[in-house]
C-alpha cells in the first residue's frame, strides 16, 4: 500500500506526549476494566447466577443450571476477548498503514470479504475443515483489502480517506448481498446465515478458540513488531525512508499482520464491524500516537469493548441474545459519522 500524503495531522496527534507514568496508570485501569467485564460476562445473561455458582462453574462444576450456564459462558467470554483484541489491534495497524482515520476492517470491506470467501468455499467446494475456514477467510480478507485500495486509488488525488471509505462501504454492501445470495438457496448452510452476515460470539468452545490461537499469535506478533516502523511512517514516506525504513516492506508486513487477525477472527465470529474504528481513536486520547503504546492499548480496549457489547446484547433482550455485531454497529456508526464531520476526513 502506498501512503496517503498530508500536511495536517488529526486532533489526536496534537495531544501532548503522555508521560510514562500516565500511560502505565491507564494500562492498569484498562486491565482492571477488562477483568470486571469478563466477570460480568460470566455472571450475567439470560439467567443471572450467584457468586458461589460462578466460582463453582470456574472450577468445572456443572451440577446446577446456574453452574452449567457459567461453564458455557467461560469460552464465550474468552472468545469475545481474543476477537475484540484482534480487531482493535488490526484497526490500529490499518489506520497507521494507510494514514486514514476511517480505516477499519469492517468499513474497508475486509471482514465481509473474509466472510464471503468462507461462505463460497462451503457452498460450492464443500469446505468443512475449521482450519480451512481460517485459511480461506484470510485469503478473502487479503483480496478484499487489495480490491478496495485499488478502487480507492483510482482517479485524481489517489487513495484519499473519503474515497477509501466510500469504496470500502460499497464493497462491503456488495459482499453482504453476495453472502445472502449464496446462503439463502442452500438449506444445509442457511442455519449459520446470521454469523456470516452480522457476526457474533455465541456458540463458542475451547476447541474453536484453540484453532485460531496460533493464527492470532502470528498476527499479534507481526503487528506489534511493526509498531516502531509505523511511527516512522506517520512522519511521511520520504522522511521514513530517510530514517532507514523500507516503506513498502513495512506497509506490506504490517498489513499482512492485520489481514491475518481479521481473517482468523471472521472465520470463527463472522464480520464484526466498527471495533477497529472506535478503539484506536479512543486510545490515542489516552496514550498518544506512539504505536508502541497505542497498539497494545488498542488490543486491550478492543477486548473490553467486544466483551461489554456481548454482555449488553445478552441483557437487553433476555432471554434472547442480540448479536454482538449489531451492538458494535449501534456504537460505531454514530462514531463514524462524528469522525467524518469533525475531521472532514483528513489523513493521519
UniProtKB/TrEMBL annotation:
Biological processes annotated in GO: siderophore-iron import into cell
Membrane topology: Multi-pass membrane protein
This protein's GO CC annotations: plasma membrane
Transmembrane region(s): 24-44, 74-94, 106-127, 133-152, 164-184, 209-227, 248-273, 293-312, 324-341
Major localisation: membrane
Subcellular location: Cell membrane
Keywords, ordered alphabetically: Cell membrane, Membrane, Transmembrane, Transmembrane helix, Transport
Domain of life: Bacteria
Molecular function, one GO term: transmembrane transporter activity
Gene3D superfamilies: ABC transporter involved in vitamin B12 uptake, BtuC
UniProt keyword Transmembrane helix present: yes
Family under the similarity heading: Belongs to the binding-protein-dependent transport system permease family. FecCD subfamily.
Listed name of the protein: Iron complex transport system permease protein
Amino acid at each position: 500500500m502506498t501512503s496517503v500524503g498530508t500536511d495536517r495531522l488529526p486532533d489526536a496527534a496534537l495531544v501532548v506526549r503522555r508521560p510514562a507514568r500516565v500511560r502505565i496508570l491507564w494500562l492498569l485501569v484498562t486491565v482492571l476494566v477488562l477483568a470486571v467485564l469478563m466477570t460480568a460476562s460470566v455472571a450475567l445473561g439470560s439467567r443471572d447466577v450467584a457468586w458461589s455458582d460462578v466460582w463453582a462453574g470456574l472450577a468445572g462444576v456443572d451440577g446446577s443450571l446456574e453452574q452449567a450456564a457459567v461453564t458455557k459462558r467461560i469460552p464465550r467470554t474468552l472468545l469475545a476477548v481474543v476477537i475484540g483484541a484482534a480487531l482493535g489491534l488490526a484497526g490500529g495497524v490499518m489506520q497507521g498503514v494507510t494514514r486514514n482515520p476511517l480505516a477499519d476492517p469492517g468499513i474497508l470491506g475486509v471482514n465481509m470479504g473474509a466472510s464471503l470467501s468462507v461462505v463460497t468455499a462451503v457452498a460450492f467446494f464443500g469446505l468443512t475443515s475449521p482450519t480451512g475456514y481460517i485459511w480461506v477467510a484470510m485469503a478473502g480478507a487479503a483480496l478484499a483489502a487489495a480490491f478496495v485500495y485499488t478502487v480507492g486509488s483510482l482517479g485524481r488525488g489517489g487513495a484519499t480517506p473519503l474515497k477509501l471509505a466510500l469504496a470500502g462501504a460499497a464493497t462491503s454492501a456488495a459482499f453482504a448481498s453476495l453472502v445472502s445470495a449464496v446462503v439463502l438457496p442452500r438449506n444445509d448452510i442457511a442455519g449459520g446465515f446470521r454469523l456470516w452476515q452480522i457476526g457474533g460470539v455465541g456458540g463458542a468452545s475451547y476447541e474453536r478458540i484453540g484453532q485460531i490461537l496460533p493464527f492470532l499469535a502470528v498476527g499479534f506478533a507481526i503487528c506489534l513488531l511493526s509498531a516502531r516502523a509505523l511511527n516512522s511512517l506517520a512522519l511521511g514516506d520520504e522522511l521514513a525512508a530517510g530514517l532507514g525504513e523500507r516503506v513498502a516492506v513495512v506497509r506490506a508486513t504490517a498489513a499482512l499482520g492485520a489481514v491475518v487477525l481479521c481473517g482468523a477472527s471472521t472465520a470463527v465470529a463472522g464480520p464484526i464491524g466498527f471495533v477497529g474504528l472506535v478503539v484506536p481513536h479512543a486510545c490515542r486520547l489516552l496514550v498518544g500516537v506512539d504505536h508502541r503504546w497505542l497498539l497494545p492499548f488498542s488490543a486491550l480496549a478492543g477486548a473490553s469493548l467486544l466483551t461489554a457489547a456481548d454482555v449488553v446484547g445478552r441483557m437487553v433482550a433476555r432471554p434472547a441474545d442480540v448479536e454482538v455485531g449489531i451492538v458494535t454497529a449501534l456504537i460505531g456508526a454514530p462514531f463514524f459519522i462524528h469522525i467524518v464531520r469533525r475531521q472532514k476526513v483528513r489523513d493521519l
